[in-house]
Amino acid sequence: MSAVASTSDLPSPAVLLRAFLRVTLDDIVPKTRANVAAGSKVFGASVHRKAPGLEVVTVGTNTETESPLLHGEIQTIQQFYQIPRDERPEARDTVFFCTHEPCSLCLSGITWGGWNVFYYLFTYEDTRDAFDIPHDINILEQVFRVPSTCAHESSSDLAARPLYNRSNAFFTSASCADLLAQVADDSPEKDELKALWQEVRSVYGELSGTYQANKGDKGIPMA
Ligand SMILES: [Zn+2]
Asked: Which residues form a coiled coil (predicted)?
């Protein structure tokens, strides 16, 4: 296994970003809207063939009203592996996309599922601050971030340590902001992609408001 999973077999950043924003608006949001109305969270995901053109293989959204483990990514992984073997691409020949940076459960799910690359739209900080859902960061800090035994590590060093390895021997991950930053400022695609992203932000602002207003007591341990 190499030190860091490669992304050399992927289309350009602009092509990737457009595909992720479009699948969000066209496929993920309608499903999310239905599940949020029932009390589930706003998280969704999709799987795309790397070649020839990022075709959508499956799309899933959070279904926590059924089980607290059915996060958007886990639901999507389950759907992917329910596709008959002879019709299903290998996970390594596909790209995983998450509307939100995956939590510890979903990071493990993506790894165990065989994906070597994933992208996400909203960061952990967005999820905590704009969506008012703090569990991703809390769980990573409380369960996984073991303080160093080195005497020289201060509490601020500990706090500054990344919450997971964003590029490692299993996968390479990046945010959609990273993709956008790689599109040249003078490219005509940049404004188009920024406008599309703004449309996505506005829809998620609305979905988040609905979730927070309706979540009530649906039996989800971490609502
Ligand atoms: Zn998750």
From this structure: none
| 195 found inside a domain | yes
Measure 204 CA to ligand 1 centroid, in angstroms: 17
Could you tell me whether strands 172-175 and 117-122 are parallel, antiparallel, or unpaired per DSSP bridges? parallel
Does the N-terminal peptide bond of residue 89 adopt cis geometry, omega within 30 degrees of 0?
no
The answer to whether residue 153 sits within a structural domain is no
CB atoms within 10 A of CB 166: 15
CATH of the domain at 169: 3.40.140.10
AA identity, residue 89:
P
**72 alpha carbon to ligand 1 midpoint, in Å?**
7
pLDDT tens digits, 90-133 = 999 999 999 999 999 999 999 999 999 999 999 999 999 999 99
Residue 3 inside a domain? The answer is no
User: Which amino acid, 23?
Assistant: V
Smallest CA-to-CA distance from 207 within 136, 132, 124, 97 is with 132
Quickly tell me which residue has 């065989």 as its tokens. Answer: 114
Specify whether the CB–CB gap between 136 and 128 falls below 8 A.
yes
Domain containing 66 equals 13-146+158-214
Count of domains in the chain? 1
Q: Measure 185 CA to ligand 1 centroid, in angstroms.
A: 33
Looking at this protein, which amino acid is placed at residue 97? F
Q: What is the pLDDT of residues 209-218, one digit of tens each?
A: 999 998 988 8
Could you please report the per-residue DSSP string of 106-173? HHHHHHHHT-SEEEEEE-HHHHHHTS---HHHHHIIIII-PPPS-TT--HHHHHHS-SS-SB-SS-EE
